[in-house]
């Protein structure tokens, strides 16, 4: 058995297998971490540490120069050592669990996904865990995670990227807390949800961004030069005021162009309720021009996976906003400054436009498929009127207003609505 050496991936690959038995080499960087090589040439990372008064070996993982490198082993080893120092026995996860705190977050998450498979938000739950939670604490024993660990994770999400993302940090905190609420009855040693009282960013102020008429005109002009999916999809957002994912993930079968009606099914609507969206003549003309993509039921399929809707919104919107600045200034070398906006702000722009046109608030909320405000509480329970005719009049009027704005038509042609 050799002493501690300066391990690298190249050195590990170059280690010679012993003729018999096993040879071990200790890492100089992480105390307790070793690489073990057997006569067959298999290289396995282990931790040698005192657990419960006895020296024990804990398997970290088998070395692979791409799938599980020295860097991966050191990261996992530090996590396991932290658990051991906190009184946990990571060897428990290799034994048959009976509901005790034997599983890692990654192990428990498999059961959690099955339990939540019927939720409309399951895809978002999976995305948050796979992108933010599992890479950082997925290999921690679930009952060893502390409030401080959760706070560090959330702080990392909020400030770790190129720009602050407090909204996503709060979403991660909420999903992790829900996971622990489910997991706690299955963890004998965990008495308190570690997400409770953990630090998280303050709730952001409600956005108030509304595009001006000049901005809307510039945006429409830029969209005229945008190909699929951005040009037609963002125009559809402007004309209908529906949510981003409801547009970009729409199936063609949801649209009845002859009846001028779009039916968003309940499993795709944010509030879980099927939503009828009347289509203006402008919206129908736009949809008729969107080509059918072979092998995809989606209106705006992803290039990478035709079974899914398009993605990559942030990069596309940044480009579009940049082009709006050039459109507004009329000078590509000296573009005007356009205040950042999100695709969701187009909903607010439509709502503000409908208010300007004299559309009643409850009709605007029906267009947006809001269940709060005037349609919440007891009113929401007993008021089943869908406002279909009123929504159609409102969206037809808004389409005419958009056309007036983008073409410079005289406003005297616009009719103010009272319903």
Give a quick rundown of the structure.
The chain has helices spanning 9-14, 70-85, 105-115, 122-137, 147-159, 166-183, 213-224, 230-240, 244-248, 281-288, 313-329, 345-356, 361-368, 377-382, 388-407; strands at 22-26, 33-38, 43-51, 54-62, 255-256, 261-264, 275-278. With 419 residues, it is of the alpha+beta class.
First-last Cα distance? 85 Å
Rg (CA only): 28 Å
For the secondary structure, the number of strands is: 7
**Share of residues in strands:** 5-15%
**Biggest β-sheet description:** 4 strands, antiparallel
Q: Note the run of SSEs as H and E.
A: HEEEEHHHHHHHHEEEHHHHHH
Structure description:
With 419 residues, the chain is α+β, with helices and mostly antiparallel strands. It has 15 helices and seven strands. A hairpin with a 4-residue loop joins β2 (33-38) and β3 (43-51). The strands form two sheets. A four-stranded antiparallel beta sheet has the order 1-2-3-4, with helices on one face. Strands 5-6-7 form a three-stranded antiparallel beta sheet. It is elongated and about 85 Å long. The N and C termini lie far apart (85 Å). It has helices at 9-14, 70-85, 105-115, 122-137, 147-159, 166-183, 213-224, 230-240, 244-248, 281-288, 313-329, 345-356, 361-368, 377-382, 388-407; strands at 22-26, 33-38, 43-51, 54-62, 255-256, 261-264, 275-278. It folds into three domains: 9-87, Integrase, DNA-binding domain (Double Stranded RNA Binding Domain, 2-Layer Sandwich), CATH 3.30.160; 105-186; 213-413, hpI Integrase, Chain A. The longest helix is centred in the last third of the chain and has 20 residues, at 388-407.
């Amino acid at each position: 058995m050799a002493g501690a050496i300066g391990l690298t991936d190249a050195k590990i690959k170059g280690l010679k297998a012993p003729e018999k038995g096993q040879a071990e080499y200790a890492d100089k960087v992480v105390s307790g971490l070793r690489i073990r090589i057997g006569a067959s040439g298999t290289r396995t990372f282990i931790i040698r540490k005192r657990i419960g008064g006895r020296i024990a070996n804990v398997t970290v993982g088998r070395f692979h120069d791409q799938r599980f490198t020295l860097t991966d082993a050191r990261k996992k080893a530090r996590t396991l050592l932290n658990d051991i120092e906190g009184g946990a026995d990571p060897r428990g996860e290799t034994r048959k669990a009976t509901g005790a705190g034997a599983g890692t977050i990654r192990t428990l998450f498999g059961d959690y996904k099955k339990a939540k498979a019927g939720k409309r938000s399951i895809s978002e739950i999976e995305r948050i865990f796979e992108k933010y939670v599992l890479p950082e604490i997925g290999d921690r024993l679930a009952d060893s995670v502390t409030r401080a660990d959760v706070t560090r994770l959330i702080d990392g999400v909020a400030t770790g990227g190129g720009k602050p993302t407090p909204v996503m940090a709060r979403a991660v905190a909420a999903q992790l807390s829900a996971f622990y609420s489910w997991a706690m009855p299955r963890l004998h040693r965990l008495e308190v949800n570690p997400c409770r009282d953990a630090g998280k960013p303050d709730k952001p102020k409600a956005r108030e961004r509304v595009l001006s008429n000049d901005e809307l005109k510039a945006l429409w002009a830029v969209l005229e030069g945008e190909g699929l999916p951005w040009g037609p999809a963002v125009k559809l957002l402007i004309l209908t005021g529906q949510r981003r994912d409801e547009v970009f993930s729409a199936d063609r079968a949801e649209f009845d162009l002859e009846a001028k009606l779009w039916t968003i099914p309940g499993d795709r609507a944010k509030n879980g309720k099927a939503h009828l969206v009347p289509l203006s003549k402008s919206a129908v003309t736009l949809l008729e021009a969107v080509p059918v993509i072979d092998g995809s039921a989606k209106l705006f399929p992803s290039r990478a996976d035709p079974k899914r809707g398009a993605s990559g919104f942030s990069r596309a919107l940044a480009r579009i906003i940049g082009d709006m600045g050039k459109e507004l200034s009329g000078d590509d070398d000296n573009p005007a400054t356009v205040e950042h906006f999100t695709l969701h702000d187009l909903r607010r722009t439509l709502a503000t436009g409908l208010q300007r046109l004299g559309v009643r608030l409850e009709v605007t909320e029906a267009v947006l498929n809001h269940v709060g405000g005037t349609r919440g509480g007891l009113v929401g329970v007993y008021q089943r009127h869908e406002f279909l005719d009123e929504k159609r009049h409102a969206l037809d009027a808004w389409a005419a207003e958009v056309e007036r704005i983008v073409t410079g038509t005289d406003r005297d042609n616009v009719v103010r609505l009272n319903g």
